[in-house]
Model the fold of this input.
Amino acid sequence: MRTLKALWAIPSCRFAFAVLGLVAFLVVFGGTLAPHDPLKQYTDQVLQGPSGDHLLGTDYVGRDVLSRLMAGTRLSVAGALEAVAIGAVLGIPTGLLSAWMGRIGEWISLRVADTLMILPFTVFAIAVAGTIGNGLQQAMIAVGILISPIFYRVTRSVAMGLRRTQYVEAAELMGATQWWTLRKHIWSKVLPNVAVAGAHATGSSLLIVASLSFLGLGVQPPAPTWGGMLSSDLGYLAQQSWAPIFPALLMMATVGSLNLIADGIRDATGQRRRRRGLLSRALRRGDDLRVPPQRREQRKESSDAAAA
Amino acid sequence: MSVAQATTDTAVPAAAPSRAAGGRTTGSVTGWARRFLNLLAITVVVLLLASVITFALGAMAKTNPAAAVLGETATPKDIARMNHQFGLDRPLVTQYVDWLGHAVRGDLGVSWFTTIPVTDSIKQALPVDLSIAIFAVVLAILIGGAAGIGAALSNGGVLDRAVTVVCSILGTLPPFVIGMALIVLFAVKAHLLPAGGYVPFSESPTQWLRFAALPSLALSLDVAASIARQLRTSLVGALRENYAIGAQMRGFSRRRVLFGHVLRNAAAPTLAVIGLAIPLVVGGAVMTEKLFGLPGIAQLALDSSEKGDVPVVLGTLLVTALVVVIASLVVNVAQTALDPAARRTSDAAAKGAR
Done:
């Protein structure tokens, strides 16, 4: 709660919350509030520009772009959130455990994370679609599995750092069970880092989901999604070169807001961060390396994992 | 190749010069051997795990060759015959060992539909992606390097802010949207470059360049943004280190300090960023293929995935993983070769972390 209040005090975060609030609103009500049926084809009004009837114009079979954008928000966002949830469920417990697993278990879990990190999202998702089947669930599980190393690494690096602190050692010496230490001392420190990683991961998984629907994986047409809309715009760039702007803008705003909030959480919870937010950097002199090197190293590992 | 090592290494070099004098106690030969063996073990294990994941996907496949090829008219006898022909009636472990054994020798089986060897199809498609991806990495280093150095030199100035803003915006867009914007700009509006198509490099390098320029540029911008960001951060930090200030005080020009001293130290974390970006580049190459209609791995994988041609799909995944691993190894070696500090610290890191 205190963190939320601190976040609200940062202007850029307030803006980001507003954008995300709008997106959340669209997720819930977008389909019902859409002015037209997102699947209805006005065949006499194909590839129209914005007009009073169709505020953002129509696509190549005459479907209303605004309605498709509003109705498509749900599937796009829900898919990304599902993938992140799967990644978190897989990554966080293994990350925590890896600090206690002993050398061999640790080595193996690190190698599994390495392996998942080298598999490119697109090729892996194609392979999953080709073997297990092409659908939203399969694609999201695939993305979730590949995202899990982000959470694994972040959790692990924090847990490793805390493992050697004196108060954890003291708790262990006093006979606290591992479960107690984990819950009391480790989890509260892990949570902000996980939140930052989660915000970044949600942003990137939105982009990945869009990329996959661009390739025809995941949500099947004609169901509207942001990525699917962009993909269908591709064939008509010569006639309507501005059409991709609307879904792209909405996606940019969402992902950008998530990144701003991630930066905000980092500030609010006292984690040092690698670089300042976009706004503060654009407005003021950048001076972001006042942190001692060892802090920088720790921080870098988490932010690099998040960047990947 | 270890990504773990790469991430722990990234931040160290900025601090490294101060402890350059220490850490020489272990013999450098054993250090190298240890490091090499460690790297080898990691690479082998990662490749093995990748093959297990790939094979597991195949084992979970709903399609089998008989149903896929013969359709609904297949009798149980036909299915059994086909399964036997492709060796699918054996225990999974035997199948895996057999499959891996063949894969190591470069035989990934044959397509269920066309019976064309998978290796042949991949051999035809892979150069397209490889040439695009390599070109993209070169472009990314050039663009990102220039932007990063420029931003670091004008720390806080207009150029720095511009680079920051552009990088942040690029980071919020999926790569294919960048590609679409480039198509609109260069192909639809300006008619400078073709919006799609491909000519192999071996046929005509200039034509190849014409067709590869847009896909590679689209692919490179994302990575260029990460490179610029990392390079700026490490350069700003390194320029404030004592050795850089000292060199400047001794009267070396700013440019000489930057290119002669600082850049070398800042290069290692940047290389680590490139190493982390390789899966993205290879995965992104797949995306640009679809965008620009290139006859590469993605086309092959997507076609066979639609048909349910499991051997081809598995082959593409395995080969892609191999490509990423090899590329990461190259980056890792380059990192070590370029920066002696990274060599020392990663020795220490290897001992500390494992």
